[in-house]
Amino acid sequence: MTTPTTRDEPRLSVGQVAKRADVAVSALHFYETKGLIRSWRNAGNQRRFKKDVLRRIAVIKAAQKMGISLLEIQETLSKLPESRTPTKEDWASMSRFWQAKLDEKIAYMTRVRDMVDGCIGCGCLSMKSCPIYNPDDIVAKECNGAVILDQPERARAAKN
Ligand code: FES
Hints:
Layout: H1 14-21, H2 25-33, E1 40-41, E2 47-48, H3 53-65, H4 70-78, H5 88-115, H6 152-159
The structure holds FE2/S2 (inorganic) cluster.
FE2/S2 (inorganic) cluster binds next to loops.
C-alpha cells in the first residue's frame, strides 16, 4: 500500500468539484452511485474528492456528448487498471471504441430510416408486411412478435 502524497489526497468538496467541472451536485451524486466517480470521507464525515476526478468527469461528459450511455461509460471506465483516471492514451482508445459503436448505431438508424418509407401515412403495423414492425419476418422462426427493432446484432445474424 502506498502512502498518498499531498497531491493525491482527497481535498475537493462536492461543491468545488461541481463548480470546477460545471456539473450539478446532483449529477455528481448520481455519477457516484453509478460507480463512475469516487469520494472519500474526511474526519468530519464530509465527502472529499481527489483532484483527478475532474478529468474523469471530463471524460464522462465528452462520452455523453457522443451519445454513449452511462452504462457503457461505466463498463469502459471499469476496465482501467485500479479504476485509475483515464490518461490521454486511454481517452484516445475509448473514443475510438465508442466511435465504432456510434458507426454501428448510425448504420442501424439508417436502415430503420430507409425501412420507414413504406410506413409513412400507413399505420397498419402489420406483422406480415410492415418492415419496421417485423423486418423480413426474420424472427418468426425463433419467436412471436416484433422484437428485432432493438436488436440490430440479432437482425444481422439472422440475415446471414
Ligand atoms: S405501418 Fe404499415 S407498413 Fe409499416
